[in-house]
Each structure stands twice: as structure tokens, then as C-alpha cells.
TrEMBL record:
PANTHER family reported in the protein's UniProt record: TRANSCRIPTIONAL REGULATORY PROTEIN NARL-RELATED, TWO-COMPONENT RESPONSE REGULATOR
Official protein name in the record: Response regulator transcription factor
Assigned keywords, A-Z: DNA-binding, Phosphoprotein, Transcription, Transcription regulation
Pfam families: GerE, Response_reg
Modified positions (4-aspartylphosphate) in chain numbering: D58
Domain HTH luxR-type: 151-216
Gene3D superfamilies xref list: 3.40.50.2300
Species annotation: Kribbella alba
SMART domains reported in the protein's UniProt record: HTH_LUXR, REC
Start and end residues of each Response regulatory domain: 7-123
Length: 222
């Protein structure tokens, strides 16, 4: 297997679903299924000894669900990036999985081309949940979010401009829209977001959206 092949690991309690995903993934010249598991516990055991780049993780499984498996995976030295798969768009499991460190989530009925694109995106370091979708999830669970803004030490390290950019990321604006809003180049916006991620220790803009809501930086429905 060459270095540029994306190593995919499948976790789903339905063997037929895993077989379908295997056929789809293995049909691509730039990716290969390197292993599979029927629940989160088995996945954790196998991923300790199986090098993987991207994990497709069902959220609802016996023994150990996808949320807890995703959380525990993050403790591995070179943790693979996780895409959680769910049946419903507004799903408390999907929200919990994103908080646990997943790079994003997809519906199980996502078209094959979109699933393959998502694997490539996640492998390249992007998130596959649009901030607007994450925002809808967060607003759905707004009752558990703070009424008052809760400052975090790492947020205090942000410059005034970085804080402004973070707020717009949380609101779901794209880099292009943020650049237009502040009369900046898209490259400058990307630089700001990169510095925000570095200062907060977060992996992608989905995590920034969660951070913005959990600290009260942006309020639901605003």
C-alpha cells in the first residue's frame, strides 16, 4: 500500500452495512479499508494495533457506543480522525460525538460520492460538518448551554481581530464571507483561523463552533 492511500477503518454493528462500505471504499484508487469492528470496544482493541487515517463510526452500537469510542480514541498517540454516522440529522449522539472529538458527522443515507468526498476532506484536515449544521445541533440542545459568557484562559490570548473572526466562524460564516465582512483576503482569514486553532488547541472549525456556544461567546438563535 502506497503512502498516499487513505487507510479507512469501519465500525458498525451491522455486517451488511460494513460490507457495503467496504465495497465502496475499496473501489477507490486512493483509499483502502484496513479493518472493521462490530462495536466500539472491538474497534478500540483493533485500532491499538491497526494504523488508520479515518474511522467511519456508527454512533448507536451495543457494548460501547460510537460517542465513548470516539472519546477514548482521542487518547491514542496518533489518533485517527473520526466521522460519525447517524440515522437522524438532529441527533443527541451526533452532538455528543462532535464534543468527544469527531471531525464531523454524516447521515447514513449520504450519497456515496459525498461519503467518499468526506473521507478525503477529513484526511486532509478539514471538517465535514458545516458550521451551520453544528449550530442547528447546538441550538437544539440550547438548554444545557450557559446563559452568561464563560471566559477561558486560551480565549484571553486571542487578539481583538482573532476574536471577531472566531465569532463569525461560530455563526457559520465561510472564509469568503468573513473576508468580505472585514475587508480581508481569504488567505488572511485562514491565517487568523489557524492561529485561533493553535491558541485554543482545537482541531477544526467545528470544534470552534462548539467552543463558541459552550463559552457563551455566541448565544443560540442569535
Amino acid at each position: 500500500m502506497t503512502d498516499d492511500v487513505i487507510r479507512v477503518f469501519l465500525v458498525d454493528d451491522q455486517e451488511l452495512v460494513r460490507a457495503g462500505f467496504t465495497m465502496l471504499v475499496d473501489s477507490q484508487p486512493d483509499m483502502r479499508v484496513v479493518g472493521q469492528a462490530g462495536d466500539g470496544g472491538e474497534a478500540l482493541e483493533k485500532l491499538q494495533v491497526t494504523a488508520s487515517d479515518v474511522v467511519l463510526m456508527d454512533v448507536r452500537m451495543p457494548r460501547l457506543d460510537g460517542v465513548e469510542a470516539t472519546r477514548q480514541l482521542q487518547s491514542l498517540p496518533e489518533a485517527p480522525r473520526v466521522i460519525v454516522l447517524t440515522t437522524f440529522d438532529l441527533d443527541e449522539y451526533a452532538f455528543a460525538a462532535i464534543k468527544a472529538g469527531a471531525a464531523g458527522f454524516l447521515l447514513k443515507n449520504t450519497p456515496p460520492a459525498d461519503l467518499l468526498s468526506a473521507i478525503r476532506q477529513v484526511h486532509s484536515g478539514d471538517a465535514v460538518v458545516s458550521p451551520s449544521t453544528t449550530r442547528r445541533l447546538l441550538e437544539h440542545f440550547a438548554g444545557s448551554l450557559p446563559d452568561e459568557e464563560r471566559e477561558r484562559p486560551d480565549l484571553a490570548e486571542l487578539t481583538a481581530r482573532e476574536r471577531e473572526v472566531l465569532v463569525e466562524v461560530v455563526r457559520g460564516l465561510s472564509n469568503t464571507e468573513i473576508a468580505r465582512l472585514f475587508t480581508l483576503s481569504e488567505a488572511t482569514v485562514k491565517t487568523h483561523i489557524g492561529r485561533i486553532l493553535a491558541k485554543t488547541g482545537l482541531r477544526d472549525r467545528v470544534a470552534l463552533v462548539v467552543l463558541g456556544y459552550e463559552t457563551g461567546l455566541v448565544k443560540p438563535n442569535h
